[in-house]
């Protein structure tokens, strides 16, 4: 087992990364009160809810379950309110703990509920997908979607501990494993060319679910993210680099409707678009663009989106949070492993990058 | 004009207190971006929205209005969502400012919306009721109600500036002026016997709406609250003193239904119950209990609630946030002007204090 400490001043917390992690030993110290609300979805509930519920009950905790429906389309205000209903119906107070057991959607919703219930209660994350192990474990971003935009409503809420158990990835559908790999590849592309080489070497093992390789990839990705987030907790500068591929990706997700494509799939294609634009700007070579596409393909990720009318694509892009005073900033690559935040790009080239990476009708 | 600085580390902000405050000079420096959403209600809109909208538009800002229905019963998730709808329909980004123009309900909802929209945007408070000038101006508590409890969902969100204009109190119904005085009297009862003497001397002028006296009372109350909050921003200790009368008061509000009694009316009776219990415990004299009742009566506030079955009253009390691990703590008086947080009280005496201060059926 590896432990990564995320340093955020007085809100330092550990991420435990390994296989078959010990709940009694590792989780218990972080449950400060007596009441635990496990927030999960109807898929994960059947797989792992019992294990956590029984272990915590055996340790003397009052444990309740709040089971939401599985899927990004349920990440809205209505389903968030079901968590508040469950907490209040259980009579839970401000000493309670909210434990997120599931993927990114559950982590986002349970985290926002933990941030808002009684203006903030203890929060623990048990991410059960590869994507959420690398994405939601670090950074404290929580939130819900709105019909007019993704993650538009939320809070910064740091967990007291994150429990990333590779053994729980066994039940993950291959498509979701790939979506997690998209996020892992992102860390390589934005800041670590050696990690990119490591991923190129081990992609076959990763795709086959090798737990040791996955743990190493999760550890490295989380360490990258933790370093960036510690420098810039509230996303005023460097942290925006983590959005490589996201402005394009969000447009794809918004157009297709939340949940049709997985987040990881959308940002994989989004990163290809960002690389394409970077290549047109002369910042990366044609060979690097191909290298980018190949690593995503080997991770079984889409590198082109369905046809989307350009006007609509652009409309969705400017609804994205990265627009400051109407000025669109993008995360682009000034080299492989070297992302930058910039508004100095050619708008026509940007449109071309979108068109280039769509499937033909 | 007086200026009170609330000290919260890097989130220091001023409260401007006076009559006919200058928007251009005092407000403009705190609007960092170009987009301003004025959140108000349908009563306040008619009185003051135009003034703020025109002044800010003349200064080059894009100003939109979000008008909610007036009343505590609208302080819920559904109406909160109307603010998000307005922000997103206007295409506002994370550089925008949310300006709360109204009483406590508007401040709570707009503040929570500002805390949650894009995970936090700039927030300005223009409280237009006496209660909100002393209560919501300091402390950063924002939130909404849930059918199972008051203020159960929310965030700590500090404004960048508060604008307390006594001239705006002219339009306030007498009942709401009294409700504000309840909160002002609270600061005297919990920690400042000299302020209590000052209030006893000036109560007639205050009730008549004397702006200079009101400004002084608001300044003193905010200064008290600011000192307490600066010591204990997240309510782990001393800040709980501010809840004098609130556990009883919330039970009254919950039973009657939100908005039937004003918050200030409920806590006035709640403080009488707390004083009654304190008197039974031998901590304050019979004369002090009478003094407490008299100051509330002179402020035209109720000192007894309608008949509420004791069982239900207690049920509503333990749903209150001040219950830690099932152990009820109350804010009581160990002397006039000297409140304490304690669980060391006689339960039968508490029940008696509730029964003593109800109207007979």
From TrEMBL, chains A, B:
Major location category of this protein:
cytoplasm
Q: In the UniProt record, which is one GO cellular component term?
A: cytoplasm
Ranges where the 3-dehydroquinate synthase N-terminal domain occurs: 66-178
Q: Mind listing the UniProt keywords for this protein, alphabetically?
A: Amino-acid biosynthesis, Aromatic amino acid biosynthesis, Cobalt, Cytoplasm, Lyase, Metal-binding, NAD, Nucleotide-binding, Zinc
One Pfam family cited in the UniProt record for this chain = DHQS_C
The UniProt record gives the binding positions of Zn(2+) as: 183, 246, 263
Q: Which residues bind NAD(+)?
A: 70-75, 104-108, 128-129, 141, 150
Q: Which reaction does it catalyse?
A: 7-phospho-2-dehydro-3-deoxy-D-arabino-heptonate = 3-dehydroquinate + phosphate
Q: Cofactors per UniProt?
A: Co(2+); Zn(2+); NAD(+)
| Keyword rRNA-binding in record | no
One Gene Ontology MF term: nucleotide binding
**What are the BP-aspect GO terms?**
amino acid biosynthetic process; aromatic amino acid family biosynthetic process; chorismate biosynthetic process
- The residue range of the signal peptide is none
Q: What class of enzyme is it?
A: lyase
**E.C. numbers:** 4.2.3.4
* Gene3D superfamilies in alphabetical order: 3.40.50.1970, Dehydroquinate synthase-like - alpha domain (1.20.1090.10)
Pathway it acts in? Answer: Metabolic intermediate biosynthesis; chorismate biosynthesis; chorismate from D-erythrose 4-phosphate and phosphoenolpyruvate: step 2/7
| SUPFAM superfamilies to which the protein is assigned, alphabetical | Dehydroquinate synthase-like
Query: So what family is this one in?
Result: Belongs to the sugar phosphate cyclases superfamily. Dehydroquinate synthase family.
Please state what the protein is called.
Answer: 3-dehydroquinate synthase
What organism is listed for this UniProt entry?
Acinetobacter apis
